[in-house]
Amino acid sequence: MAKRTADGSLRDLWAIVAALALVQAAAAAIGFAIPLWLATTGSSSFQIGIAASCYMAGFLIGARLAPERIAGLGHIRAFIFFAACAGLAMLGFFAVGPGFLAIAIVELALGLAIAGLFATGESWIADAAPATGRGRIIGLYYLIAKLGTMAGPFLVAGFAPGAAAGFMMMAALFFFAILPVATTSQAQPVPHPGGAFTLRDLWREAPASLQAALVAGAVNGAVLQLYPVYLAGIAPAAGLAAVAGFNACAQIGALSTQWPAGLYSDRMDRRVVIALLAGFGAAAALLLALLGDSLPVAMLLLLAALWGAGSLSFYGIAVAHAVDRAGEGKATHAIAGLLMAWAFGATLGPVTAGALMSAAAGPRGLFLLAAALLGLLAIAMVYRRATHRPSPALEKEPFAPVSTTSVNIAEFDPRH
Predict the structure, then answer these.
(1) Which end of the chain has fewer CB atoms within 10 angstroms, the N or the C?
(2) What ranges do the domains of the chain cover?
(3) Into which CATH architecture does domain 2-186+194-412 fall?
């Protein structure tokens, strides 16, 4: 019976990983398709940035409200509920048409539903994963999640912006995610007490981590929501496949550096590693801003990979630094607090970038903002390193990749 129970738990685990990969693909497809659709309807970059910020604001609200809904419904019904809401919201684009304000409201609803999906799925994984294999499973989960993020834009790149078939494809991904979940049975995980650190707690215990999380949210939230508008402005002949490839190259770049940078951060001051990665990302962003309109598509994709290698890989190291500083029994709360800081930055980033892109800076304003924020972060990390002692080596926890999807994945972290 014990073996059968363990096998059933693993089947549940792979079912929810498969479902979340579909959700990742859908979310990435939304970030690709909606900005392009808004651009074709005459919306300004500022308006597109507001719509993207509405999505992130909905995500932030959903991340805070979802645990109560999960506790009331149970994981299977909660996942089905949130997936159905997300799919219906996608189909809702048909009803609202190309009006900017209505699209922003639908984006808010999508953010709420997708945050609920991640909160449900990742807390399920945390409950189903055996304690002895969590490190391996979390690494595999992130790999599969990245593959979903890379694949999503390609699934809708063949459709014209605003085409009904593209919206139906994205809605179908949410509905397909229900299938593996609906065929499993999962006991209600035991809820964990406590809540997130407040921003004051984070600033007192790990100010460098708070700064890094805010910048990661602002920069990555802006770029991953608005890169299609940037490419449409500087390389209109590139084609939708090249636009989707930009996202894929950025994710590949992040995969290539996340683990090596994390391992180095276990052996040296993590703030130095964050500074190096942020500086690397700032340099790539500056090249994309200044030279993007004169470079061939292949060079743009290479710079996207270099930007992803720097900008998309330091958040996990910031979390590890916060865990080092948080103290006994506070790791989960610190991770949850940093995610809230990331989401706050991701809410402000797109609207700020959209304003710059609508002003004299044009499309290059997206990466001018990214270069400025990443450069400031690198300087801040060097300053913190020079004026404040590093964490003692004996107090450092091993690095582990950390998701910016839900606070519940903190329970899955091997350092919990």
Answers:
(1) N
(2) 2-186+194-412
(3) Up-down Bundle (1.20)
